[in-house]
Design brief:
With 394 residues, the chain is α/β, with parallel strands linked by helices. It folds into two domains: 274 residues, Zn peptidases (Aminopeptidase), CATH 3.40.630.10; 114 residues, Alpha-Beta Plaits, CATH 3.30.70. The strands form four sheets. The protein has an eight-stranded mixed beta sheet, sandwiched between helices. A four-stranded antiparallel beta sheet has the order 10-12-8-13. Strands 7-14 form a two-stranded antiparallel sheet. Helix 1 packs antiparallel against helix 11, helix 4 crosses helix 11 and helix 9 crosses helix 11.
């Protein structure tokens, strides 16, 4: 396959990619509610003559693109949900839905997916084997990937390779990140309930104060990464919520802490989770309170297969020769593409999308998030070329 044609045609598709993205951006939908989004996707895929399955894991969409000969199947996955964030970009294509916006680039991911579908379909006569297009709901902490796996999305076609992409506003337009091994962290949800004895705020000696205990637990948890993990390893323990009491003059009988734990390695995760339990229970007991710790796994780490990542990097060097290729980028952000890559070896790609000169560099999940749409055709060209390359080397 002539990869220069793929880049040329992807760039020529820019107006359509931007139109798709802006339409989706104006109509954001939360996880498992992406009905309009799924309709846009299904309509576009059916226009290509593809057989489309809808309603998978509530709102997921799957289509199969047949190549020139049977055999190996490659899976391409795109997430499509928005966030419960009030948009503050002031863009002419800003969200029309109060309290909801695409603050993580999933609107762009869907547009890239539709662009890849159109481009690969145009050259399907040269496509060896098959491409399975998977548009996934509810990536933002709601378990959409696992729900699609539970629905059997891998069982019919048995893909042997999986690819995905994330627009990345932490890096500028032209940058591409394709590391080996763990590249996005696994995530656990942490909740600690501290039980004390309530009382009058003016008579604290008669109470067992869970608020003071909670404050000390928060401080103690911050020692785990600094004092219990290897300094060359990586982990994050963040307490992001503390709730206690209803009145200024009443010591409550309980406090709730919530937060997140991020790790790359199983051994580090085991150490961190164990120390959370020990410290929370021990510190609370020292303050005459009791602590109950609940840890809920959210996603495993996103792990790139080194062999497949090497091939995708080689494609990036050819197709996006004017860009900067980074082989080391890792992030403590989680992504449920991890579940697909646990089941199927593959590669997840970061595409730089920030443009500071145009003010398009707000971080992900920020009310001001927006990205440089010139990243869209670059991603389409790279993922399309990678699909042809990987299928051609079965």
């Amino acid at each position: 396959m002539d990869e220069t044609l793929l880049l040329r045609d992807a760039l020529a598709m820019s107006a359509d990619l931007i139109a798709w993205r802006r339409d989706l951006h104006q109509h954001p939908e939360l996880g498992f509610q992406e009905r309009r989004t799924a309709g846009v996707i299904a309509h576009s895929l059916r226009e290509l003559g593809l057989e489309v399955q809808t309603g998978i894991a509530e709102t997921g969409v799957v289509a199969l693109l047949e190549g020139g000969r049977p055999g190996r199947t490659l899976l391409l996955r795109w997430d499509m949900d928005a966030l419960p964030v009030e948009e503050a970009t002031g863009a002419p294509y800003a969200s029309l839905e109060p309290g909801r916006m695409h603050a993580c680039g999933h609107d762009g991911h869907v547009a890239i997916g539709l662009g890849v579908a159109r481009l690969v379909h145009a050259y399907r006569a040269e496509l060896p084997r098959r491409v399975q297009l998977v548009f996934q709901p509810a990536e933002e902490g709601l378990g959409g990937a696992q729900r699609m796996l539970d629905a059997g999305v891998l069982e019919a076609e048995r893909p042997e390779v999986a690819l995905g992409v994330h627009l990345w506003n932490a890096r500028p337009l032209g940058w591409v990140g394709i590391p080996d091994g763990p590249m996005m962290a696994g995530a656990d949800v942490l909740e600690i309930e501290i039980l004390g004895k309530g009382g009058h705020g003016a008579a604290p000696h008669q109470a067992h104060d869970p608020v003071v205990a909670a404050a000390l637990v928060v401080s103690a948890l911050q020692t785990i990464v600094a004092r219990n993990t290897d300094p060359t390893a990586t982990a994050v323990v963040s307490i992001t919520q503390l709730r206690a009491g209803e009145a200024f003059n009443v010591i409550p009988d309980r406090a709730i802490l919530r937060g997140t734990v991020r790790t790359f390695e199983a051994a580090v995760r085991q150490t961190v989770l164990g120390r959370i339990e020990e410290l929370a229970v021990g510190v609370a007991a020292a303050m005459e309170c009791a602590a109950q710790v609940r840890l809920t796994p959210l996603t495993p780490p996103v792990v790139n297969d080194p062999r497949i990542a090497a091939r995708v990097r080689a494609v990036a060097r050819r197709v996006l020769a004017d860009g900067h290729l980074d082989e080391t980028e890792r992030s403590m952000v989680s992504e449920d593409m991890a579940f697909f890559l646990q089941a199927v070896p593959g590669c997840f790609v970061f595409i730089g999308s920030a443009n500071a000169e145009r003010g398009l560099d707000a971080p992900h999940h920020n009310p001001g998030f927006d990205f440089d749409e010139a990243a869209l055709p670059r991603a389409v060209a790279l993922l399309s070329a990678a699909a042809f390359d990987l299928l051609g080397h079965a």
